[in-house]
């Protein structure tokens, strides 16, 4: 099994001992989700698979935060935010907008003459470079801005 999965399991045990209810529930849900992913895959998960599943969970929490914020449910926004913060501890450091823009500019220069119609091509190469270090929506926004400027 993946080292990251083992770390999450150890952190769950620590949280249980410390009686940290929010961390316990978040990590239990995450481990359950990872076990379901392992079953769906039909084999053990590596660290990249685990990270991908955590990214999916984090995205779900971000969407929930937006929905609860629109519904003026601050209690649920706070709960989802605390769970998201716990999940983010297991994700690689996120790139800032300037770092993403630099990668986008390099990719556009590498591809040569590109326009807005080539957005999918540029997105594919940029996402392959940034992997889990940037949100796809943020990357798409930057790519779109750069392609419309050219």
TrEMBL record:
Xref: SUPFAM superfamilies: GatB/YqeY motif
GO molecular function, one term: carbon-nitrogen ligase activity, with glutamine as amido-N-donor
A Pfam family matched in the record: YqeY
UniProt cross-references to InterPro entries, sorted A to Z: Asn/Gln_tRNA_amidoTrase-B-like, GatB_Yqey_C_2, YqeY/Aim41, YqeY/Aim41_N
Name under which the protein is recorded: GatB/YqeY domain-containing protein
Protein source organism: Candidatus Curtissbacteria bacterium GW2011_GWA2_41_24
